[in-house]
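Field: COMPLEX_INPUT
Field: COMPONENT_COUNT = two
Field: RESIDUE_TOTAL = 852
Field: MODE = joint
Values follow.
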Amino acid sequence: MERRKFLKNSALASSLLFVPSFVKAFESVTTERFGFKRLVIVQLAGGNDGLNTIIPYNNDIYYNARPRLAIKEGIIKLNDDLGFHPSLAPLRSLFDNGELSIINNVGYPNPVRSHFRSMDIWQTASGADEYLQSGWLGRYLDANGKKPYNALEMDEQLSLAMKGEHFNGIATNDYRVLYNTSKDPYFKNVLNHYNDAHLSEHNLGYLYQTMIEAKSSANYIYENTKVKLSQQEYPQNKFARQLKNVAQFINSGLETKVFYTSLNGFDTHANQLNKQKRLLSQYADSISAFVKDLKHNETFDDTLILTFSEFGRRVKQNAATGTDHGAANNVFVIGKSLKKAGFYNDLASLSDLDDNGDLKFEIDFRTIYATILSQWLDADDTTILNNSYDKLNFI
Amino acid sequence: MKQIELQHLYWRVGFGIHPAEYKSINKSRKSVVKSLFKDSNTFSPLKVDVSYFNNISYKDLKDNPELAKSVREKNVKKIKELNFQWINQLATSKELLRERMTLFWANHFVCKDNNIVFIQKYNNTLRTYAIGDFRAFVKAVSKEAAMLKYLNGKQNRKNKPNENFAREIMELFTLGEGNYSETDIKESAKAFTGYNHDIKGNFVLRKHQHHNGQKTFFGKTGNFSGDDIIDIILENKQCARYISKKIYRYFVNPTPNEKHINAMTEVFFKDYNIGNLMRFVLLSDWFYAVENIGAKIKSPIEFMVGIANTVPIKFERKKDILKIQKLLGQTLLDPPNVAGWKGDKAWIDANTIMARLKLPSLMLNNAIISLKKHGDFNDSFRERYFKRNKGKLPFKILPNWDTFSTNFKSVETERLDTYIIQGKINKGTADYLETLNKKSKKDYCIQLMSLPEYQMC
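Field: COMPLEX_OUTPUT
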């Protein structure tokens, strides 16, 4: 097509986008589903101590390196070498049913021990020496998303992971607030009058377009979320509330592919034992309630839950009965159709550590992303991750 | 200068201007720009009190975990304080251009640190060089404690090089991607080995860790120091072009114009003087061209400080200042990574657009955006409803409408849009605005601020 003609046609097409009557049509359109499978991300922010989460209870090096910190009692033994922290008891049945896969020694080359930088690397799926401004889930949306509500974060602020080059998910810790804001009659009046097609290529047109999308997304979520579906009891904490909302959205059949949740406070430099015990309880109790809720509504089969932290912690305890920033760590994958449940691989050697005294990584976290993108979300992982990674076989 | 040009200039080098200020300004472009520079001749550093940290040594921190913990907590608190002080300075300083350029450089030489002493010092270094010598600026940044930590400069040692800083100085700070080779990175990293700092944030060169030998960089061979490397980088005109383009996209128009950027490059390459470059831009005719007016999407800071510039506000709870920054996606001193905030369209998504449209009414008018039409008596029902909900508002902010009334006294309410909005208003939206009751200047101001058009400057 000639350039002039093309421009003319695209101008026409975009002008159609902005006739006021379209606003209404836009809101009622039900898009064809682009697959039922959903991904729930759980981010343990601060750097969870993986060694005290999945404990090498038969390993002397572990006990020698952590005289005041090693877990000695109440370990839930899962095989001859490794066991759960006592707080993870609620996840025992998932492990036994083959609904949990624990991938050990996950990390990346030249690990960075700064929280924000390492979190950045995990969220953008970059290498340690590159800086990307879009997230891996955002780029998935770029390629496969249609509406902002295809990806929801249960927070006020959108994580970098959920920001694409052209497309962003929605962050909301209370979808009712978003809805109430968007239905201010003044905005409705403005949109009903808005009629200029020619601005659509410019920044102002982009603002109006985003406003229309935000309004229709807020409507969509509000109108399609069925509040009374869940009979499941959840623990009383912020993380549990996030998962409860996610379950509500999933069980209501919202066309959302990716949900993002986060549990904070894992940066245990001092007095780690009680802090981690409390946090892991919150995690396990909430996840357990969440899975029950999904099973009850028959949506668990189509849901995959990925739990990660930006890094693990040093093998040796520090002077303050805590641990400092480390490197490789374990990742949990929870779902119904796992190919390889239980332990995906053995824990790395505790005697062959890197120069900092941290676990060496064996599995690049991007191979996990690539596997999930291609095997679970039917997406083109090579484009999204900008590289071709080997796939693992946990799903 | 015309009203529209003045507003344009002041939105780009400051956060807007109100009519009461017009009178005190001489009307020729040359003298307006001249006085902008004159006002920025002085320098006001941020001054968060850090005396608490004065007598603490690294050994104290190592030996005393309790102290280390309280130092960490103190730092978090003090960095919040620095954030408030910075925003206050943006909103109130007479050194407009210097402050505006400091904000620009903070998203160029991007850095973040959890040590208040280091990050405050860093921020004031940005302020010191903001409109000065770019060459000295890059050299100063390369020796800042916060930067040495942020890009691992202090881990860069003779026998164990860390190339992070060497890579980023070229990729992000001076030349842009693709204008150097991997060998250039490796060789220049050697020149920066041994860079370190003491606990007060003063630069220290650790001689034993410094590579004291030949390096071959951009075709030159010698025993180069870090400063030498920066000099060699600046010999490449690409550096002047890279910075000119960034300044153009920030101060003039997000869509680059090669002709104007070329002209800027010629000016900047002569002496790498930032002030001279800015003077050239602000005096040129094209800066005031219609296509550049209202062409830029405001950053959250521009948006928030801009509102406060029109209607002065007082935060009853300081933490609300942080809350708003977080909500809009830009918390000063907390950049996403060394590439900084992407800016422009990236500021806007479904969340932030709704937040931006609703914020002016939330901050200034108990969340009410009036719907009164010509001839309507009132919508007292709505007002009563919102009043009942006042206690539930997410922010506690006191707007000063009296100052607004005084500053906008000379403006007829019907013409308020030409003062509040930069650039064109969508035709349909303008038709809707026509139908609205213009009895209250305050109501109309809120209505204008609650439009997509208000996001532009």
